[in-house]
Amino acid sequence: MITGSIVALVTPMMSNGDVDWDALDKVVDFHLEKGTDSIVAVGTTGESATLNCDEHCQVIKRVVERVAGAIPVIAGTGANSTQEAIELTQAAKTAGADACLLVTPYYNKPTQEGLYQHYKTIAAAVDIPQILYNVPGRTACDMLPETVLRLAEIDNIIGIKEATGDLDRAKELIEKAPKEFAIYSGDDGTAVELMLLGGDGNISVTANVAPAQMGELCRLAIAGETEAARAIQASLMELHNSMFVEANPIPVKWAMVEMGMMGQGIRLPLTVLDEQYRSQVRDALKACQII
Known about the structure:
12 helices, amino-acid biosynthesis, globular, 4-hydroxy-tetrahydrodipicolinate synthase activity, TIM Barrel, cytoplasm, DapA-like, alpha/beta, single chain
């Protein structure tokens, strides 16, 4: 089972929007050095919605090659077309990814049965471990616990990134899902509490800029070290909040510019962080001694 601090990796870009391959290598190396437990390549934080299919597959392949087996690589392969998700998942398997993360279909608002059939079909088509991803605030599609529990019975569906921030829902899944089915937080602000309930890790935006702190936080929370984990979480809350002053990944990419990790490239329709929020993000980075 993949556990711990899992970074939802940004995709560095040039000012013209082209993928910055050298900066991508640099940020992967940064996570290897700082003890991140696993990397999600081209998840939604990695701007999967605006990378074309070739770029999507190339970024996954590049991350797999750079990591070279040191930690697991999870490929973001979700789509609102089941066939497209199958094709991306197959490409990720061919590239050598250890698992895939599949966001719920966005915009088309499938029924719960439609969600079940979508994921069941992908799991049957591609023999690779697959992680469900529920983030209704971004997709307008909420996968309910009963649907998750049905899907948890499928052998190669191994977990879920639960990004609602609803701890009652997380508790229900932890209590009712098979023991080997992983429950990951996808909400940095509530991640510690989810892991203290018995969750298995955190797929994190904040880990892009604070990988060592997030790694230690996750290790403590999973081990049940309540006070120590909550103390780190408290020290990071300003940073967590600053990562969402505009739509993700706008703030985190700007933060990484401040850190000297990459240039200001981001794909339209997203734009560089508005000036009114820059001091807030900068102050949060300083408070955590990141810059």
